[in-house]
Amino acid sequence: LTIGDSIMKGYGLSPADAWPERISAANGWDLTTLACDGAGFVDLGNPAECGDTLVDIVRSAATLHPDLIIIEGSSNDLEHPNSELLAATTSALTILRSEFPNAEIIGLSAIWPTTDPPAQLADINSQVQQAVTAVGGHYLDIGQPLVAHPKLMQDDGIHPTAAGQVVLATAIRSAITAEQQAINNQKGNIRPQRYHRAA
């Protein structure tokens, strides 16, 4: 199960081009993606599409049965007060853990296309890290793999092209694999099927 914004959805592209679909195809996951253009933990998504926040989207997932949940921070939340963002992010992750006590939960850092991200983006990432680790999940900071590669961006300068989604898929898949290996090393035995079936 992946939960996020328009970048996760593959805005402007075929659904198969989005990075969750690419990782799912490579890993053999049974994938459900709940992503909405414009959505953040506080920011409402596009009313024509969902009109929901990521907290609302999390609540809508209650009928699913995921083994692995990936939820991402979003630049859509920029300019909202940090206190409000932390409360909403914490709420979303708390709900996920309550609904899915046995699922592996991964929080991802937010994507930004340029070398000068707003300072608040680091706060958003920190809040995701704090909230996901508080519920026993794992935080993965994938950096900014699209930076300095304008050809990987669509004309709006915000959303990745299909090639950009490939770059994201590669970075995120590598980060998940590395995290899984680290957990294996620390705990000796983690059920790998949780990483092989997403919903």
> If you average the pLDDT, what whole number results?
92
> What do we call the CATH homologous superfamily?
SGNH hydrolase
The first-level CATH class name = Alpha Beta
**Number of contiguous helices:** 6
Shape: globular
Q: How far apart are the termini?
A: 5 Å
- Radius of gyration based on Cα positions: 16 Å
What name does the CATH topology carry? Answer: Rossmann fold
Helix content: 40-55%
Q: Keywords, please?
A:
6 helices, 199 residues, Rossmann fold, disordered C terminus, globular, alpha/beta, five-stranded parallel β-sheet, 40% helix, single chain
Q: Which helices and strands, and how do they pair?
A:
Elements: E1 2-4, H1 6-9, H2 19-27, E2 33-35, H3 54-60, E3 68-72, H4 82-99, E4 104-108, H5 119-134, E5 138-140, H6 162-187
Parallel strand pairs: 1-2, 1-3, 3-4, 4-5
Helix pairs in contact: 2-6, 3-4, 4-5
Summarize the structure.
The chain has 199 residues and is α/β, with parallel strands linked by helices.
Could you describe the 3D structure shown?
By secondary structure, the chain is of the alpha/beta class. It has a single domain, classed as Rossmann fold. It contains six helices and five strands, in the order βααβαβαβαβα. It has a five-stranded parallel sheet with strand order 2-1-3-4-5, sandwiched between helices. Helix 2 packs across helix 6 (162-187) and helix 4 runs parallel beside helix 5. It starts with a strand and ends in a 12-residue tail after the last helix. Mean pLDDT is 92; it is low at 189-199.
